[in-house]
Amino acid sequence: MQKPTPQEERTAAPPVQVQALRKVYRDVVAVDSIDFTLRRGSVTALLGGNGAGKTTTIAMLMGLVTPTSGVARVLGADMARERYQVLHRMNFESPYVDVPMRLTVGQNLEVFGRLYGVRTLGQRIGEIAQELRLGDLLSRPYGRLSAGQKTRVSLAKALLNAPELLLLDEPTASLDPDTADWVRTRLEAYCRERAATVVLASHNMAEVERLADRVIMLEKGRIVADATPQALIDRFGRRNLEETFLAIARRGQAEAELQP
Amino acid sequence: MMSGAGGLLPEQRGLHEQTGLAASARRVSAMVLRHWYVIRSSWPRTAELVYWPLVQMLTWGFLQSYLAQATSLAGRAAGLFIGAVLLWDILVRGQLGFSIAFLEELWSRNLGHLMMSPLRPAELIASLIVVSLVKLTVAMVPVALMAYWFFGFNLLGLGIGFAALFANLIVMSWSMGLISAGVVLRWGLGAENFAWLVAFVLLPLCCVYYPVATLPGWLQPVALALPPTYVFEGLRALVVNHTFEAGYMIKALLLNLVYFGLGAGAFAFFLRQARASGSLVQMGE
User: What are the structural domains, with CATH classification, of chain A?
Assistant: First the structure.
């Protein structure tokens, strides 16, 4: 049988495959030997309290942080060594990372479109501006937009290259309920249309219940729960994911307090 | 429309080819465009590029005019100080143009986006080099014209010698820019002042306004290990004796190759350190 080419191997590989992934900052273990694999088209929420290891895990998936040991493989590429093979096939959105403030929305989309090598860029910007209701904002500097408008621009930047893998870090933080709902609807539509894989970090449990088909809960860098949102709610006998999250987090806290 | 299916070639995905020279050139041009939009968006920022070089040139030009009446050396070497200050500004503005373009990404909290985009570190460096040249042109062309108008000093009148002086200074400015960008990558905006001040350490050492022999003996080897020292010695030979000292330029070039290699190595090292320490994530937040 003929050996598969690297291209074919990457095609067959799961969108995200994390094996024995560990990150230690000096003497602090941020991520402690975690394993998970995501299937194509899935929406997975990474949950956990502050310092649980969500941001570090996502940063290792993006290649922004190198693991101490283990492998974070995205679309078949080891992100510590081969990230440039796949970075054009993924994208990222977070309210904590901005695009240049002085550039207009249109200029920002043009610059990022060129960085990602989007063909027929003008047409693509037009399409995405229409989808995300950015038409009136294209000529306005990004720095002068409201929080909700900035989120829409960040989302446009994240969808510009039609990514197969989308990493979202609290995509609706600081948005009013109406805008947050609108963003979630757009994300649902994108995932449905493109069969995109999404990794979502959020503290909004209603959002996670609505968007995610899988929840990975982290505590002190370890995976303490991994199931569908409903399975987790049922297992802990709670009414919703918020109560389940609190139950898991407080159990961990109580265990920690009992330690000598 | 683009397909979300895995394993497609970039063109099938609605994207250009991602590897090769054309892809690199496209990403570099995207970054240059990003900075060009910033430069042209604000006339005070453009004026600021010209302001300090102009003030410096006028100050030293008038001093030169005064000294020309009082001393025979200054009388023989018309343009010595103006030439020195213009060349010094090439070094400083080149480095600041490079470093500030890099700092802009941190100030605008955009570095995270760039570091997870297909932009390679070498392409980021190439774009910073082009941006520094653009900013230098914006700053120095009006000042060089003013030097000719006020003091009759024609920088281009130095001929091929000017090209050699310019090339050696600008390469040194990029080496310093690389090191300062690396330091900021590793230690964050707390180390920003390093980027602003690094060039000025060289001012007394690389003998901008006086010969190397003026320095105390123990300091002369330090000066002779710096490429700009040979550039300013070369300028004095050109202006005072009207001779082009090719030997100086070759020494400066060889030293510059070493410094640029060190600068690129330092940038790569600090970037690896930043990925290991997680400081790239902190800078984005």
Answer: 6-258 (3.40.50.300)
